[in-house]
Amino acid sequence: MNELPFRHLFQYTSGPRTFSGTIGKDLENCEKRPISKFKPIPTSLPELSAKDISTDQKYLYRMVEAISTGVFPSDLANKSPGKMSHARWLTRANRILRLYVSVETPPESLTILATYVIKVYAPIWFSIKSHSSCKDGSRHFFKLIELSRYLPANLKSIVDPVIQRNSYFAHPENVLLAMLTDSQPHIRELAARRILKARSVTIKDLRIFKLPQINFNASTYYDLLNWQEDISEPPLLKSVTEKSPIIY
């Protein structure tokens, strides 16, 4: 969910062949560059304990904090951003940020990528890390959309189709699961009513899991989809009776 939009944005700004562009080549030895004067990129991250994250994740967290505040810790300059790999997008994000702080006047493509990592990729990564239950999937998905709305139209045209094609957590089954665990009582009640309504409909044919058309202008995760379409209950609740405290 979080990696794919970032991957497509990287390919758009750096070329379809990984590491073939200027940025891709510069990433290979970015950790050897001295830290330069850089422009801060404000953001916010969820609080996490250092013991709960890996070395590469800790590096990303500290880099985002440094670039967000504009204060770069001296020891961070000598830390490794992680090995360069075609498969590891976390370390690629690390290297993009390391390259960004070593170029006083970064090219537009590098600024685009660094800003996306700071404003979208990293916050979503650590939100998922701190709330990894399936019940939180729809909320993370909505947050991904919400945070990426700062992008100009030409870049939204790159990431939005990717988000749409991977809108599994905007499916009613997953949104209802999130609603049923929402902090607001009236949203939980609404979820219960919709689940009971879905149960009242007899389906004779094999149910098809169809991705919903996303409302990218939604103000909440439960407004991402059109509730007038066919609705099915979360499979996780199939064995839960209507009198259960979870639903009733």
Label this structure with key terms.
248 residues, 2 domains, mainly alpha, elongated, 47% helix
Verbal overview:
The chain has helices spanning 3-14, 22-27, 55-69, 89-100, 108-130, 137-147, 153-165, 172-180, 185-200. With 248 residues, the protein is mainly alpha-helical. The protein folds into two domains: 3-130, no CATH class; 141-248, no CATH class. The chain starts with a helix and ends in a 48-residue tail after the last helix.
Short account of what is shown:
The chain has 248 residues and is mostly helical.
Q: Any idea how many domains?
A: 2
Structural class determined from secondary elements: mainly alpha
Rg measurement, Å:
21 Å
Beta-strand content: under 5%
Shape: elongated
Instruction: State the major sheet.
Output: none
